[in-house]
Amino acid sequence: MQDADAQHSFAHKPGGLILGIESSCDETAAAVVRGGSEVLSNVVASQMEMHALYGGVVPELASREHLRNVVPVVREALRQAGIRGQELDAVAVTSGPGLAGALLVGISFAKAYAFGLGKPLIAVNHLEGHIHAVLMQRDSESASQQVSESAGSILALVVSGGHTHLYLAQQQSGAWSYRNVGRTVDDAAGEAYDKVAKLLGLGYPGGPWIDRLSAHGNATAVPFRFIEINRGTADEPSFDFSFSGIKTGMLRYVEAHGMKPTIEARRAALAQIDNPTLDDVLPLLDGPTLDLIASFQHAVVGNLIRQTMSAATHFDAREIVISGGVAANRELRARFAAVATERGLSVHFPAAALSTDNAAMIAAAAWPLLRLGNFADAALNAEPRLRLG
Ligand code: KG4
Ligand code: ZN
Questions:
Q1: Position 378 in a domain
Q2: How many domains does the chain have?
Q3: Do 177 and 310 fall into the same domain?
Q4: Where does the pLDDT of residue 220 fall: very low under 50, low under 70, confident under 90, or very high at 90 and above?
Q5: The pTM is what?
Q6: CB 187 less than 6 A from any atom of ligand 1
Q7: Which domain, by its residues, includes 177?
Q8: Closest to 63 in 3D by CA, of 24, 29, 94
Q9: Residues 177, 313: one domain?
Q10: Ligand 1 atom closest to 189 (CA)
Q11: pLDDT, tens digit, for every residue of 147-188?
Q12: Within the chain, how many helices (H) and strands (E) appear?
C-alpha cells in the first residue's frame, strides 16, 4: 500500500487537512483534523438510543443507520470546519476491526469521495485510532503541533465495549509500531459493565450507569477476586485480562441473595421512563445493590490497573495512555492517576468526546500515514477481525 511518489510529495507538507470517517460499530462519525492534533470539527451521530431498545448493538440496524447518516455527518463535519472538500489533503477511514456491514458503509463512501476529489485514501485501524485519541490531545496540549517522538515506549490500554488490549507503542522515523502485550481472553471490560448493568435491570450502555451509581455504594462490601491469567513466557510475557469470572460472580451473588424480584421491579419501572436521570434511578436501588455495584467497579478497575502497572514495570514504560469508552470512567481515571503519580509515571486520558468512538481519532492516526505516503488503494475492504501489533 506504499506509494513512493505520494511519499515524496507529502513528506515536506507542514499542515495536512484530513477528513476522518468512522463507522465500525454504532456511531457514524466524521471529523476534520489539521496536522494530526488540531480538531476543526468532530461530528458523531449516535445510534445508542435505537440499540438501547434491544439491549445491545444490532448489526443489521447499525448498517442501515450508517447508510442514512454518513452523507449528512460528513457534510456537517466539513461545514463546522469551514472548509470545502477540495481543500482536504486526504480522506481517512476505519477499515477494521468492527462489524463488517457497518465498516463497509464508511469505506465505500470514503473511497468514492476520495476518488471524486482526487485525494489519497488512508486506511486506519480503529484500535490505533483509540490510541491516537490520547496522543493527539497530549500533542495539542504541548506547544508544538507536531507529533513528538517519544524517548521510550508508550504503554497503551485500549478498553472499550469490544476491546481490552495493552500495546507497547513506539514511533521511529515517523512511523508508529505496536506490540500487543495483553488482551482479554473472554469479555471486554465494557462488555462486562454492560452485561452486569443488564443483569441488575439498569439501562444500556451500562458503563456510565455503573460509574455514576458506584459513588453511592461501599466498594469494599463484596470482595471479588480475579483468577490468575496465563502470563506467557519469559521471552513473550503476556499481561492478559479476564472478565467472565466476575460476571458469573455477580450472577451467583444476585441469585444467592434473592435479588431477582427487586431487579425485575426496577427493570419494569425504568421501562416506563424516557431517558432516565440519576434522580430517577437512585430511588430504585437499595443499599446492598449499590454496594454490589460499587464493589464490581472497584474490582474491575483494580484489575485493569494491576495488569497495566505490571506491564509498565516489565517493559519500563514511562508513559501510559488510556483510551476507549471505559476510559471515561471516573474511578478508573482517579485511581490510575494516583498510582501513576506514586510511581513517577505520566498517564494521559482523552477528553470525554474523544474517549468513545469518534472520527477525530481516525484522522489523527492517519496523519503519520499521510506524511509517510502510506495510502490505501481502490481494493480496500472491510477487515472485521483486523488486529493491531
Ligand atoms: O469505545 P466505545 O464507545 O465503543 C466500542 O468500541 O466498544 O466504548 C463503549 C463502551 C461500552 O461498553 C460502555 O458501557 C463503556 O464503553 N463505557 C463506560 C463508561 N462510559 C462508556 N464504562 C465505564 N464507565 C464509563 N463512564
Ligand atoms: Zn472503539
A1: no
A2: 2
A3: yes
A4: very high
A5: 0.91
A6: no
A7: 151-353
A8: 24
A9: yes
A10: 12
A11: 455 567 999 999 999 999 999 999 999 999 999 999 999 999
A12: 14, 10
